[in-house]
Amino acid sequence: MVIKNKTSYEGYKKTKLGWIPEDWEVKQLKNLLKKIVGGGTPSKSQPTYWNGDIPWATVKDFTNFNSKETRDKITNIGLENSSSKLIEAGTVIIPTRMALGKAVCFEIDVAINQDLKALYTKPNFNSNFLLHWFYFKSEFIESLGNGSTVKGISLTDLGLIKIKLPPLQEQKAIASCLSTWDDALVKLDQLITAKQQLKKALMQQLLSGKKRLPGFTGEWTIWTYRELFKKVSRPVDWDDDDTYDLISVRRRSGGLFHRDSLKGVEILTKKLYTAREGDFLMSKMQILHGASGLVTREFDAMKISGSYIAVIPRNESILSMNYMSWYSQTPKFYHQTYRSSYGVHIEKMTFNYKLFEKEEVSIPSIEEQTAIAQVLKDADKEIELLKTQREQLQAQKKGLMQQLLTGKKRLRIDG
Length: 415
What we know:
Elements (H helix, E strand, L loop, with lengths): L11 E4 L2 E4 L3 E4 L4 E6 L11 E8 L14 E3 L1 H5 L4 E3 L4 E4 L8 E2 L4 E3 L3 E6 L5 H10 L1 H6 L11 H5 L2 E4 L2 H39 L14 E4 H4 E4 L10 E7 L6 E8 L8 E3 L5 E4 L8 E3 L8 E3 L2 E6 L7 H7 L3 H9 L1 E2 L7 E2 L1 H4 L3 E4 L2 H39 L11
Parallel strand pairs: 5-10
Antiparallel strand pairs: 1-2, 3-12, 4-11, 5-6, 7-10, 8-9, 8-11, 13-24, 14-21, 15-16, 17-20, 18-19, 18-21, 22-23
């Protein structure tokens, strides 16, 4: 249903929140809640208050939410000697400080800390409907937050928020419909996690030689990086009027990204280098944090600063950079770069490439390297496909929420 420039519309009425079905109401959240319960934190100085059997929820649990578990647990004595409260399973819990706009329902009873509030609904307000309403209005609620660094929202401001409220049976039907989509998203998340764990196990086994692909035998050969790598440097002929596409490398093996496109006159340090497809880049300042990566076709001919070292295989019949790109994500490679760095603080250590060149690596034949890289690439593609499917499913759910929670689309209510 699209309503535009209407003075009346059959079956709908106009309100301060726009057009809604005639049997819906506009209510303030405070008038739909029986009570709001806050929590607290047992004293950290009392070991007997912690590591008990009672799940204790904080804002941390809203990331990678698990409805049956919390990161921390407290004891009965910890609960009794603090302002923390035990919240019944199925109750909507929200943060009022940090992570504004989020909401969860645990399938277990949990205690909560002072940054969380449990919302107990009145009989005419379905708690699952409220949960989905929070998902729908998350950006709006986040925008109401106050504070320069850590944003918070007062219970007064929260209570004044108006809700388009359908009859109770329709609330339940809407919540049930949207929960079906949530179940599908959870199953997809579980599948993605399983595939990621499988890929991680494959990397550990294939890149160490503990597992061999069918048809490959023979001993692996030990080489130093000096024997395998050849440094390359392609200085840019500077022109203040030219536009330079700049690339950087993310930490934690996050790969390359296009950082900026700037005119030469806008760049303070007038030293750039051209990266070519097949180069392997290592950050002098961030390599021990996993800032290394392979230059793919999309980044070919883009520019890097002097804070990167670019290498290519000294002999392509011995080393595949596609294989090395995968190997660079292993704990062993991370440790080698750490051993080859110096400095008083881990965030300020500098990479010593000459020292790194002495480190050794055991690699299979070029044919086995190619096969291993392909298997891992296929596993990566499968995960990316699942992530794309999840994004599409999430977008579809968002569109359905927009229809159902505003009354633009009605569900058939049997009975």
